[in-house]
Design brief:
- The chain has 51 residues and is mostly beta strands.
- It has one domain: Single Sheet (Rubrerythrin, domain 2).
- Helix content is 0%, strand content 49%.
- The protein has no helices and four strands.
- A four-stranded antiparallel β-sheet has the order 2-1-4-3, with no helix packed on it.
- A hairpin with a 4-residue loop joins β3 and β4.
- The chain is elongated and about 35 Å long.
- The two termini are 18 Å apart.
- It holds the Pfam family Ribosomal_L33.
- One of its GO terms (cellular component) is ribosome.
- Keywords: Ribonucleoprotein, Ribosomal protein.
- GO terms for molecular function: structural constituent of ribosome.
């Protein structure tokens, strides 16, 4: 997998980068937002894609 498709997911509450994921940037143009578990917040929070 190339690095072009890799993205970082940042917690919207505590602003920590917790997850790395991948997406097809040709199909999905807007930034990804997912509900994921944050270890520092200790609950499920929305995670947004960072640069």
């Amino acid at each position: 997998m190339s690095q072009d498709n890799m993205i970082k997911l940042e917690c919207t509450v505590c602003k920590r980068v917790n997850y790395n994921s991948k997406k097809n940037k040709k199909i999905i143009k807007q930034r990804l937002e997912l509900n994921k578990f944050c270890r520092s917040c200790k609950k499920h929070t929305p995670h947004k894609e960072t640069k």
